[in-house]
Each structure stands twice: as structure tokens, then as C-alpha cells.
Amino acid sequence: MNAPDSVRLTEFSxxxxxxxxxAPGILQEILAASPLHAVPKELMVGTETSDDxxxxxxxxxxxxxxTTDFFTPIVDDPYDFGRIAATNALSDVYAMGxxxxxxxxxxxxxxxxxxxxxxxxxxxxxAAACAEAGVPIAGGHSIDTLEPIYGLAAxxxxxxxxxxxxxxxxxxxxxxxxxxxxxxxxxxxxxKGRLSAAGYRAMLATTTQLNTPGEAFAAMPDVHAxxxxxxxxxxxxxxxxxxxxxxAGELRFEALPVLAEALEWVKQGVATGASERNWKAYGAExxxxxxxxDWRRKLLSDPQTSGGLLVACAPQAERAVLAEFxxxxxxxxxxxxxxxxxxxxxxxx
Length: 349
Known about the structure:
Elements: H1 26-33, E1 43-45, E2 54-57, E3 63-71, H2 78-95, E4 99-109, H3 116-133, E5 137-144, E6 149-158, E7 174-177, H4 183-191, H5 197-207, H6 213-217, E8 223-228, H7 233-245, E9 247-251, H8 260-267, H9 273-282, E10 286-288, H10 294-300, E11 309-313, H11 318-327, E12 334-341, E13 346-348
Parallel strand pairs: 4-5, 9-13, 10-13
Antiparallel strand pairs: 1-2, 2-3, 3-6, 4-6, 7-11, 7-12, 8-11, 9-12
């Protein structure tokens, strides 16, 4: 699990780790306030609802999906870090129903602290994830930074009529989650030196699994909305869907898939600082049952790196969605709740 030359990559990560994002809405507020924020008619998806990627209509049959994502290390092995970061960036294309076609590397490295061999392994890991997705890394940009930063600007294609937004869910929809929760908790345990080898393998397996079912969901008309669960945690990204769709939501906590060792650690109080920041940002919009144990709240706000797709589909499509997840190797996909008419608010039972 350790990097060559005795370098611990997670020691460089001071920003909370686990692909965390700035507070919801800040980027949208800044862009909306800019006098240069002109929106062309071809821009199908922009910053309006905090969606996963921008979408630009090229013609009647093609739209371009564009996204970028990068972060500091959540693991010590440089190759694994590269794979996780690249998989995470490509996820946003899949979440829009797109097929990735190309990527550009975003690289910032402390050249006076990291050996070239470590940097090379990070880039090799990213290239391996892109190769698995069938896309080339066609270029990029690198700078000298205080902390290691790696990720991608990813481009994809989707039919304009098949774009899956996070803001088009329907009342009565079933919620299906494609991957288990707990990545942030495992990353916190790893940083404390407490994560087992089995826990690390489970963390690596989920964070490097490409969210390829998103492309198949684009062809399903009864799949109404899709997003991926990343830095704001399950509750945060579901709330984005609820706000954008003007709906209320209900989660069944016992139905949530959770990484086994993450469940053990969170019950012992292990969590990231970002989990607490997430809850402060949106906890007032979440209704928990009286007497809910604190570890449950931490799990709901646990930041996920390269987390699962969250799908809102008509009840008659639930079986097909779960079957598609299973066909593509997502054995822990689960139906976890429902959407209903009402003010945007999340109830956890």
C-alpha cells in the first residue's frame, strides 16, 4: 500500500481528502454574478442545478459532455491514486449518460519532494483507468505545486435526447444506488494507519470500478435522472437532485449498501473532517428519526471518491436498472428510497 522510496502520499493531503468539493452553490453564485456569463442556446446543461458535467449540443444527434475533476491523494500507492483519480473524473461523463471519448491530464506535483518514479506511477495509473474505459489521454497540463494533485478533464458524447440530468426526476420514482458507501471512512482509517489489507482492497475495488452503466441508462426512457455520489456524500448529492427536480425524498437507511469495514470504523467514530463540513452545509434539510445514532449521520454525509451512480427511475424500471447494474458487475446495487411531491427535503427512516 505504500509508495516507492518510502513516500506516504497521504501525508501531502491537507485539504480533507476523498475528492471533497467546495461548499455547494459557491461556484454557481460566482458564475451567475459575472457580467460575462452569457449562455449560448447550444449549452444544454451548465451550472444551474450543480449537475455532474456541462453538455453542449453539437448537432441533432450529438452533444459534447465536458467535465474536470482532480484532488490530492487518498491512498499512498501512486499507481492506485492515479487509477482512482481518473476513474472518478470519467464518472461524471457516465452520470450524464455519455460515452467518454478523450481525456486531458491535470497534474500538479511537488517536484522537490516527490521522486520522478512516484510521479510516473501516478500517471501510469491514470492511463490504465483510461485505457480500461477505451479513451486516450491526449494531452494535459502540469505544474509544480505544494501538494500532489492529479485528475482529468474528460470529454464524452451523448445523444441530445438521451442526456440524463440530476434535475429531471419524477414524483414516485425509485432511487437506486450503484456502489456501497464508506470510501471516506476507509480513507480516514488508512490515514490513521488502521485500515486492514482487506479493507484497502475493498476500497480500491469500488473506487476503480468505472460507472459504465450510465451509458446504458441513457437509452432507458424510464430512467428519469442520474447523478454520481462524490464529495458531498449521499445526502448532499440526493439533495441536489431534490432541489433541481422540486421533489421530496425518502431514504431507507437499512437498505443502504455499505462497505463492511467502513461500517465497523464509523461506529468507532472514524470519519473525515469533510463529513462534518458537509452536514453543516445541508443537515438542516435532512430529517432523521429521533434518537438517530451519530454514526448514521456521518455515513450519510461521508464524502465518496469515485462513488456510485444514483438513479431515479419509474417503479416499472427498477428491475431493469438493477439488472443492468448486475450485468456490469455492480453486485451491491440497491433500491434505497423513493421520491414524492413536496418541498425539497430528505427524510431518512
